[in-house]
Write a structure and sequence with these properties.
The protein has about 280 residues and is α+β, with helices and mostly antiparallel strands. Helices cover about 45% and strands about 15% of the residues. It is built from 14 helices and five strands. Helix 9 packs across helix 11 and helix 10 crosses helix 11.
């Protein structure tokens, strides 16, 4: 395959950056979407993206977050996570090689930084072989807030290794991503609805659409008391004490929540506000 990027490759990367911007307010959602799309574009099987904030004081630890997608089996993910917990970063030859690279935005595939003998005799590869993974492509950069961002794309055991074309594609994607981090695209220290219970997400979307708790209850087919309890849970999740604060804090998540709306429409019937004693309104779209 040619090492040169095609026009369609460039278009795909710029579209992906645009999609991430649409999901920008949720640090987990936009990253998961990006990783899933990069798996398809780069021929990856599993991918991960992480962020780390350096400690404010010497006796403090780094704050670290990680998102990963594409696991064939939950037990494979558990085995990999266990290996990470039980080993030091220097036990990972790819990580060691990656962070030894100079430059503002290094992007490397495994064969550029770890020779075959070192890789295939490493403790990490013995683990990867059991979970059917092998070759890696990765990158890292530091944003203007001094947060460290890493990304890794991993191929299945037996797949052909990453090459120069995939490296150039990831480099282009990272170049476009880097200036957006922490100002346009939310860092991991921002609120997320990614792992929020579906009913809580539904309640929040209803509130962002201007619905009362009573109307939200009718739409979801549950009692107003239950909705009120969900609202209190939302207050705790976002660290607020009033509906106004909640809406102000979560308004940027509307586009993320709205992606679920079409699915909800299959199960819930829209109830006009006049049916519950309120005034009619038009929904945000």
């Amino acid at each position: 395959m040619s090492k040169r990027l095609r026009l369609n490759d460039l278009r795909t990367i710029y579209l992906l950056i645009g999609e991430c911007r649409e999901l920008r307010s949720d640090p987990i959602v936009w990253r998961r979407h990006m990783l899933e799309r990069l798996n398809g574009l780069l021929g990856g099987s599993m991918s991960f993206g992480g962020e780390a904030i350096p400690p404010q004081h010497a006796d403090h630890q780094w704050k670290q977050w990680m998102v990963d997608v594409g696991w064939k089996n939950p037990s494979y993910r558990e085995a990999y996570q266990r290996w990470i917990r039980e080993h030091r970063p220097e036990d990972n030859p790819f990580t060691v090689g990656m962070f030894a690279q100079q430059g503002r935005l290094p992007v490397r595939y495994r064969r550029q930084i770890v020779d075959d003998e070192t890789w295939y005799t490493s403790e990490l590869f013995q683990l990867l072989r059991t979970i059917e993974l092998d070759d890696m492509l990765g990158s890292y950069f530091v944003d203007h807030h001094s947060h460290l961002h890493i990304i890794g794309i991993v191929r299945d055991l037996g797949q052909s290794p990453f090459g120069e074309r995939e490296r150039r594609l990831l480099l282009l994607q990272q170049r476009e991503l880097m200036p957006l981090m922490g100002n346009v695209l939310a860092n991991f220290d921002r609120p997320t609805v990614a792992d929020m219970a579906p009913r809580l997400r539904q309640t929040l979307l209803c509130l962002l659409q201007g619905k009362s708790e009573k109307q939200a209850a009718i739409r979801m087919g549950i009692s107003p008391a239950t909705v009120h309890e969900y609202v209190k849970q939302l207050h705790r999740h976002f660290g607020v004490s009033s509906r106004g604060e909640l809406l102000s804090r979560s308004i940027g998540l509307f586009s993320v929540l709205a992606t679920l709306e079409d699915e909800w429409e299959k199960h819930y019937t829209e109830v006009p506000e006049t049916a519950v004693g309120g005034r009619g309104h038009s929904n945000m779209r």
